[in-house]
Design brief:
Elements: E1 12-15, H1 19-31, E2 38-41, H2 44-52, E3 67-70, H3 79-87, E4 97-101, H4 106-115, E5 119-122, H5 127-144
Parallel strand pairs: 1-2, 1-3, 3-4, 4-5
Helix pairs in contact: 1-5, 2-3, 3-4
Length: 149
C-alpha cells in the first residue's frame, strides 16, 4: 500500500506507552496486509531520540518515519510536549502526525490541531474497530495523500 511500488515502504512510527495497544496496532496493520514497517516508542523522550537518531537509535534502527501515530498520554514527555517540539523543529515539522489517543477532551482536540496535527482519532475500543481505522489510515495516507520525502 504505497504511492509508488518502486519506492521503499513508508515507515510508520507509533508513540504509545501501552504494550497492549502497540500489539493490537501491529496485529491490525497485519490484518490489513499493510507492508509499511511499523516501529514503536513508548514515550515522548524516546520519540524525540528516535526522530533525532540519538542514544540507542541510529539510521539503521530508526528510519525517518513518513507518519507518526501519537498518543497524548505518555510518561516522561507526553504527546502534547512531543508534538510541540516536533512541529517547532524545521527538520521534523513536515512529518504528518495523527493523534491516536483515548482522550475525547475538546481542549486536547483543539490544542492538537493548533499545534499542527494532521488528524485526531479517538482510539477504538474493539480490535475490529481498530482494524477498520488502520485500514482507512492506510488507504488515506498511503493510497491518496502525497507525502514529503
Amino acid at each position: 500500500m504505497n504511492q509508488n511500488d518502486n519506492l521503499k515502504p513508508i515507515t510508520i512510527l507509533m508513540a504509545d506507552d501501552d504494550p497492549d495497544d502497540q500489539l493490537m496496532a501491529k496485529e491490525a496493520f497485519e490484518e490489513n496486509q499493510m507492508l509499511n514497517p511499523l516501529r514503536f516508542v513508548s514515550d515522548g523522550e524516546d520519540l524525540m531520540d528516535y526522530l533525532h537518531q540519538r542514544g540507542k537509535y541510529n539510521k539503521e534502527t530508526a528510519p525517518r518515519p513518513g507518519l507518526i501515530l501519537l498518543d497524548l498520554n505518555m510518561p516522561r514527555k507526553d504527546g502534547r510536549e512531543a508534538l510541540m517540539e516536533i512541529k517547532s523543529d524545521p527538520s521534523l515539522k513536515r512529518i504528518p502526525i495523527v493523534v491516536l489517543t483515548t482522550s475525547k477532551s475538546e481542549e486536547d482536540i483543539l490544542k492538537s490541531y493548533d499545534l499542527g496535527v494532521s488528524s485526531f482519532i479517538t482510539k477504538p475500543v474493539t480490535f475490529d474497530d481498530l482494524v477498520q481505522v488502520t485500514r482507512e489510515l492506510g488507504k488515506y495516507w498511503f493510497g491518496i495523500v502525497v507525502l514529503p520525502d
